[in-house]
Specification:
570 residues; alpha/beta; eight-stranded mixed β-sheet; 47% helix
């Protein structure tokens, strides 16, 4: 019987084929007392060595097939395995508690997996999958368990509970038509890898292994995030046509890489990329990013036990700025604290971390930490077009205090004749209702706004999108959200400033026509969405979208806004 399942569209494309289930038993680790901790530590070290060798082979294979950016994931896995903080913690557990290495690894690593899994930021949350991949690789050597490799014999669609990044990197593109997983998100390394391999994928679909048998006919719609199980012939024919259209459009997108983003009636906007590390720049440029609209700097502070030095930060920022070769790079200052906890910050537990001590609040309190980052950014500004952005702003005084500290450093640089860009733009993320409502006041203080919709929607709707009981209230097209976005854009334009958006909404095909009509100047999104968004903008009329946006603002519900856009056929 034909059935449809809905998940997350992780990698675009249409796949039609027979299902191949990947069933992998979870490693069960039991606690054992051991007689010689030193022998056990030696056994642990040997397992690490073998796992690092494994990863080097996967790195080389990925480097050859997918390039340095994707291969670097496995260099990062090697670094995780050799991280002295992690290895010391495991060894200390073995030595102090006289327990087996498997159990010590499980206990230590699960703490970090739990930490990452609970983070609100999806990009950081998905790093838990990398830790789990690394942990299981070492456990396989210690327990003598065979880490089952994926060796398909015939072209098929893989159905699994989850795929690790190394699983995905080793998929044979000729034999893997597509894949479906029960868990996972768009920013997991498996999803990123699938997009590089151009394998259609839908993830986070829930308990599908209980529904699909080997040999069942499947359609994977990686564009809409749908799975069709045992579809009828009419449905198969419809998706074959859709696949053909998609492939033709995809080929046509390549000509847009070096093109500006202009509507058919001549209105130009900018499409930029959101990145998490310097290595992400390669993908941004390959997809025609006109700049970096959001450079998250949190990666510099994670997976370590001390603050990154000014030199470390400077090197990372300079690398991005130089790779962008004159295109703008917006560096967001540290957005951590609250839910994104790091041990060496030594912060107390909070009743409600989303409303707590985080981002600009933490930086204005821990000024030495803030100044170190600002110095590194200022130094990097000498190598290209850098802009600074402060996150989680709610008051005018926060902006003024952050600018005052920045100005102090600028004066020091001038006195010490340290090179920096004197025309550095300073902006804020608008991600709270407070900053949106007083955007007319804040616009006088800053050079630009970048709207962070992920938090703006949550705070406005008072709903945690990760809470399954209230996630239905996470409504990007809700009239309240659209009206706040309009207020921000209008306030910026009134002061002669520009307004961008770096939240997920910026790359949303339904939102793009409305945002364009509202006057948004810059759209920043994941690199893989850029060419599709550029094509979308190029197909639209700015004057018509202004009318559409005005109508959207008058709708009563999110559903009516979506109906309006669909009825407009854009």
């Amino acid at each position: 019987m034909s059935r449809v399942f809905h998940g997350i569209a992780a990698s675009p494309g249409i796949a039609i084929g027979r299902a191949a289930r990947l069933e992998r038993q979870e490693l069960k680790v039991e606690k054992r007392e051991i007689l010689s901790p030193e022998d056990e530590i030696e056994r642990f070290k040997q397992a690490i060595t073998k796992a690092v060798t494994d990863l080097e082979e996967i790195y080389q294979k990925t480097l050859k097939e997918l390039g340095e950016e994707k291969a670097s994931i496995f260099q990062a896995h090697q670094m995780l395995l050799q991280d002295p903080v992690w290895t010391s913690e495991v060894e200390n557990r073995i030595r102090e508690e006289s327990i087996n290495g498997e159990y010590a690894i499980e206990q230590v690593t699960e703490q970090y997996i739990s930490l990452f899994s609970e983070m609100e930021d999806e990009y950081m949350r998905e790093r838990a999958a990398d830790l789990k991949d690394v942990k299981n690789r070492v456990l396989a050597y210690l327990t003598g368990t065979n880490r089952r490799q994926i060796h398909e014999q015939t072209p098929s669609i893989l159905v699994a509970h989850d795929l690790t990044p190394s699983d995905t990197a080793q998929l044979d593109r000729k034999l893997t038509l597509g894949f479906v997983t029960e868990i996972g998100g768009r920013t997991s390394h498996s999803a990123i890898m699938a997009r590089s391999l151009e394998i259609p994928a839908v993830v986070g679909i829930g308990e599908i292994l209980g529904e699909v048998r080997n040999g069942d006919l499947l359609i994977v719609d990686g564009l809409e995030g749908e799975i069709h199980l045992n579809p009828d012939p009419e449905t198969v024919a419809r998706f074959e046509e859709k696949r053909e259209r998609y492939l033709q459009e995809k080929e046509g997108l390549k000509k847009l890489v070096d093109q500006p983003t202009i509507t058919r009636d001549g209105h130009q906007v900018e499409i930029a990329a959101n990145i998490g590390t310097p290595k992400d720049v390669e993908g941004a440029l390959r997809n025609g990013a006109e700049g970096i609209g959001l450079f998250r700097t949190e990666f510099l502070y994670m997976d370590r036990d001390t603050f990154p030095t000014e030199e470390e930060q400077f090197a990372a920022y300079k690398e991005v700025v130089e790779k962008m070769k004159g295109k703008p790079v917006i560096i967001r200052t540290l957005d951590i604290g609250g839910d994104k906890e790091i041990p060496y910050l030594d912060m107390p537990k909070e009743m409600n971390p989303f409303l707590g001590y985080r981002a600009i609040r933490l930086c204005l309190d821990r000024t030495e930490l803030f100044k170190t980052q600002l110095r590194a950014i200022l130094r990097a500004s000498a190598y290209g077009r850098v802009k600074i952005m402060f996150p989680m702003v709610t008051t005018l005084s926060e902006v003024r205090e952050a600018k005052r500290i920045l100005h102090e450093i600028v004066e020091e640089f001038r006195e010490q004749k340290i090179p920096f860009s004197s025309d550095l733009e300073v902006g804020i993320m608008v991600e709270t209702p407070a900053s949106a409502v007083i955007a007319d006041i804040l616009a006088k203080e800053v050079d630009f706004f970048s709207i962070g919709t992920n938090d703006l929607i949550q705070y406005t709707m008072a709903a945690d999108r990760m809470n399954e009981r209230v996630s239905y209230l996470y409504q990007p097209y809700h009239p309240a959200i659209l009206r706040l976005v309009k207020m921000v854009i209008d306030a910026a334009h009134k002061e002669g400033k520009w307004a961008g958006m770096c939240g997920e909404m910026a790359g949303d095909p339904i939102a793009i026509p409305i945002l364009l009509g509202l006057g948004l100047d810059e759209f920043s999104m994941s690199s893989s969405s850029i060419l599709t968004a550029r094509q979308k903008v190029g197909s639209l009329s700015y004057s018509e979208m202004k009318t559409l946006a005005e109508q959207a603002l008058e709708q009563e519900t999110q559903e009516k806004v979506k109906d309006l856009v669909r009825a407009a056929g854009v």
